[in-house]
Batch of 2 targets.
Target 1
Amino acid sequence: MSQEYMDPELLADFFNEAREHLETIEPNLLQLENNPEDLGLLNDIFRPMHSLKGASGFLGLNKINQLAHKAENILDDLRQGLHPVTSQIMDVILAATDALRTMVDNLETSGTEGDVDVREIISRVEALQHAAEADTRQQEPTDEAPSSAPEQEIRPNTEAVTADQPLIAEAKPAAAKSNGVRIQLAQDPDFDNTPYPLTTVGEGHLTDFLEEALDIIEDLNRSLVTLEGAPDDPGELINDIFRYFHNLKGNSGIIGFKELNALTHEAETLLNRVRKGEMDSSQALFDLLLAVVDLIEEMVGHVEPSTGEVTPMDSSGMVELLQRAYEDGEIPEIQDTPEEHGLAEQPQPAGEVPVPDVVPQGDMQPVEPSTTIPPASDPGGAASSHDDAEVLAQGGFDPEDVAIFESAVGQQVDNLRTALARLREDASQEQYVDGMFRALTTIQNSCGYMSLNALRDYAAQTASLVEQGRKSGDFGILLDILGQEVDIVAERLDDAITQMHSGSVEAVSGGQETERVEAAGVAASPAGVAKPSPAPDSAPTSTVLDNPSSSALRTGSAGPNASGASSTPTPPTAASSGASANSSVKHKTASTIRVDHHKLDHLMNLIGELIINRNRYALLARALEEGQEEVHVVAQQLTETTYAMARISDDLQDTIMNVRMVPVQTVFSRFPRLVRDLSRKSGKRVELITEGEETELDKSVVEEIGDPLVHLVRNAVDHGLEDEEDRVGLGKSPSGHVWLRAYHKGNSVAIEVEDDGRGIDPEKMRSVAVRKGVLTAEEAANLDDREAIELIFHPGFSSAEKVTDISGRGVGMDVVKTNIKNLKGSVHTQSESGKGTKLTLTLPLTLAIIDALMVEVAGETFAIPLDAVSETTKIKAEKLADVNSRKAVTLRGEVLGVVELSELLDLPPYPEERSILPIVIVHDNDRRVGLVVDRLLERQEIVIKPLGQYLSDFDLDGISGATIMGDGSVVLILDPHEIYSLATSMGRPQARGLERPKGQVLRSAAARALES
Amino acid sequence: MAEQVTTETNQYLTFTLGKEVFALDIATVREVLELTHVTRIPRTPDYMRGVINLRGHAVPVVGMRRKLNMKDVEDTINTCIIIVEVEYDGERTVLGALVDSVREVFEMAPESIEAAPKMGAAVKSEYIKGMGRQDDEFIIILDIARIFSAEELAAVQKIGQQSPVPAEAAG
């Protein structure tokens, strides 16, 4: 599925989230392999997998969703002890996480999930489940379709069906999603998903709601997961969670978001019981609540802020689950409901609250029925929605209760009508508004007591409408609506009471409140049928498709009832920002970063100061223009103001840099897994030691170093480390070690990949280089050891005797070098034959601003990053030892190679003979070279500007970017690393084919002498 | 994208290089600047004049005379930089084109534009999108995206590598 029409921000969030989840999953999986009994770990794996499934479902990313779902299933099985944790299962789950990662990456780069074969993994998962289930479960699914339907979702006997899912394109993330944790939700086939407008007061109201809702969802997720980790000590957390649900309920009620209101209400009720200690907080409970939060998130996602409309989702299944959850302990007669048959059929994992694992019998996976279950085959035993009609249908009300109920609500309805009448005369009579609110609350409570949940919710919504009116100050506009609402409430109460009396099976027609309120031309549930057929009905599908405003995102998950095949067409929509995306333009996604609020506050303060300062400049300018002040006074003030400005801009820069910093942990976290895999593949025992994960780097840098590091670590394991036998033979520990370190080094960050393997043999490098035609024998002989080692960075060079499937194709190191160069960093190699290799990446803290030394060459100014400048000096020209085309000088007893920068850059040489030469000594790691410039200018902080795509295709060796000076001119920034390479390779082109000049030898000797 | 807009606007920015009149699809043109200081980039081909500061961005400037294999002249007061936006290697790129002078925005109906002549034109026919006419004067409509394309650059560099002479001399 293409993401073109998705909200880029949502997507970016998804990428962040998905990566975080995968990053959490992997290390835990690896740990789990060692401690198969650790249930906590399993939960830590299960949770992110579940979230990933949810998030992907929400975005309609089917492949990811399916795969995550499968992985989740098997994890759940593991968790419940259905299978032992075997390395076979681990491999499959790891394969699944890999595939997930690939798809997430594909999605980010190309906009599609890509051609990842999830089916194979899915069938592997299923095979494993099958094998295990054959042992553990004797429970046979009956052929009777509806009762077996939910099980088929997880049972292997539907392999073919599930495997077919990828073919059903935009199928049903909604359903797939909500069946998380095997909570399979009943869908009301007659659910009306026509968008309806939300009631909002003024502009921004809806936005506020959405923002708050998302915050609450985030809080909920966090609190739930925290609580899950420490279920024995609920304390404040459970209250927090309760409050979150409560707030959300209130908010959704105010804007008339009926389904959300109903759902949150149930969750709130359930939590209230937990809070009071009437229920245990079990794992199952958390699964259920998290599933609820996912559903809420999805529902909130269906609100279209631009139109103020919401595409309703059928939450009745979840509502039902919640209801059962809190009723189970208390209302025994519910045992007679059809749902309980489902319960009876399902083997229960011991010791858990049965609820979440109960698979509602009437559940249909709408994706599947077209192939598995004839839609019309409902034998009538499946009640897909647990609405008031059912409660009523079950009867069993205590006549006394009914009588009390009747009189109580009757009175309240009267009160409502009176209040309305009074308010019509004068809408400002607050006591009547309060009265209405009280009356509705009473009705709500009464209905709750009678288990008429839909009605109760309806009353609650009406109450919140009243509340909203009260807040908005003008109650008059709401009177008409309220009048209608009250009528509906009254009517439904009457119906309910009639039925209670008669005990009739006849249901309140259209017990679903949505249908009642909307009456949007969709036929209500088959009249009088209390148990609507669960068969997916194609009617709602057409509703979705006919709805022009349903954005693609919504469509991705909007059709809970749509059968897969018929919902395939996705309305192309203009609502999304990606609509203009040109297919040939590289896919770019918004990247987000999380920022501490205090940092933002600080930034805001600084901006404030900046403005004050600006005003001060204006003042000074006016003073000068008008000549009121003495010039020198103004000048002094000007200097002061400029100092203030400098302080502010420094502070601003620091703060912003701070905001952009993220720990390298995010990159390092993937390596334990990589090393594990490499170790298994290569048969070497490898221990990875990571250090300094908390070292922070600019986000843009962190994002780019992943690939290079992967190459380096692969190389270390594959080429660097010896086989176990060899190691033992060499007197080394049998298992090899790879270190991954990050640490600060001056104004940059160094990342080291070190191994204690065989090291790089310079002799071998030379001979391979000659054999591969990279160098002539002569050239090779003239390389010093360091240069020989650096041959590994040469494109197409691989010294590995055999090319393995892990590395050795000679592209890796080349890529490393290019990537690091793009990051304005450098790579440094240290290797000792037999002892190991250490590669050090030196990266700038940030890509944006650096300290630089400005120099002038041939009339042009250039900037040299100060990091690379070890010193500046002036030497007498006569001190230069001139050997062929090379120059060198002895500086403080050390030999230093010297080159003219103008010569390196093909610029005209300095026009006259100079007796004193200004020299900048730059170092590339520990090698140094002196650059003769025309003039040394000042040191300055510069802002790096990229030279752009077009120029990057030119051969810009030695130039890493540009910056803009105070006078507006463009100044080029030199790349010290490349300058060094240019300097060392200088005399070579002329020398090629000729006799090797002695200068080369001297230079090498000089370079060697300088190695320290 | 350029093609679509062309059919809608039919407007072209005309400019001169020597005696020849050229035109660019107005949709690709962002603005026209007076000649400012151009920072030369060492070791780039001659037609690459360097980079300028365009409101805080470093924008490369290409000398159109050199690029189209014409003789270089001294910059004059009329010398202008036309800032164009082209898609380069899949990305939107802003580039400057240094020309002798900019004339006007000129409207030409699509039917009045003829195909590029196979031969005999002052510039390579791949660079030409079509030939327009204003009074008795021919206007060469340039395919700016093509001139600044990655393939073009690759081709130029190949030639450059084969012979020591700069690319434009080889053409």
Note: The radius of gyration of chain A is 36 Å.
Target 2
Amino acid sequence: MRRWLQRLVGLFAVGLTLVLAGCSAQQGGISIENVWVRPSPIPGGTGAAYMEIRNGGSEDDALTSVQIDFAESAEIHQSMTQGDMAGMVMVDEIPVPAHRKASLTPGGYHVMLINMNPDVKVGDMVTLTLYFEKAGKVAIQAEVKDQ
Amino acid sequence: MEEPRFTRRTAIAGALFIGILAFSSVFLPPILSLIFPAFHGVNYDNPQQIDFSLPMAPNGDTFNLRDYRGKVVVIYFGYTNCPDICPTTLYDLHRTMGELGEDASEVQVVFITIDPERDNSQHLADYLSYFDKSFVGLYGTMDQLQPVYDQFGVRVLSKEQTTGALGHTADTFLIDRSGKLRVHQHYGMRPEQIAEDLQILIREKRS
């Protein structure tokens, strides 16, 4: 009976780990959630990656660069809108203050994916390697989807 | 003996007052919005007739806005190399067409490039069909495009002119069935809101 219970608890723990691993990646105080990649509508065009970066640690951190192998390069950009005007600038980093969350969402911060591999299609999983000032390297899996 | 009657009268009056208040707060806004429909976007005080012709992707056939009288036309200015704002808006417009259901056939979405150097016709056709097969893409030389930008008050700043990050107009423009520019919507409006604005124009009689 006790053995049976142990197995059940073990299974539950494995299941929970798998579920959590599917939702987010965690390293140090940094965890990544709701990550997705928008493909380029045309071959060789630009795509974008979006996510939420949570800093559970007590030290301020910042996303400083992103590496990918499914596009020529990745740059950190910020879109801005004011009244009828919109535009975008490249930024050096996205700050992720201690105990706070940074959101990369359409119309705001995003990772611009330049000259994307045309084979990357909706439904695919791709890997992004994020580099943080303090937490260092964090590799995450992202689903390719339209929105 | 007088006191209970007074209390009853007060109670009835109070109940009536609350009833009227509840009725008007629940039913009055939808009734008023039916009589005076309000746009989520910004409506022009003095709507102007818009007219232009431009080459249409992919074959370079001439697009005449005049040919679309009777339809509600949605105009969006953007460029195919845009990674964030343009695809978000185009995807939202595709979802708007879904929200409209059968009424989507009353609406034509038109994308006009603000990057004529890079956006050639085939490029533009492939780009738009990714979002929605019904969307039409227009291009041309800067000499052809600039007068169209001017009609809509669209600003496209060069890198040298750009201050900070604001480089181009990202509004969506709605033209009614008679060809008048009626509403412009800022970036970020939800598909349901865009659809509601379009429904107001769809419901208007053809003139």
Note: The CA atoms of residues 6 and 57 of chain A lie 33 Å apart.
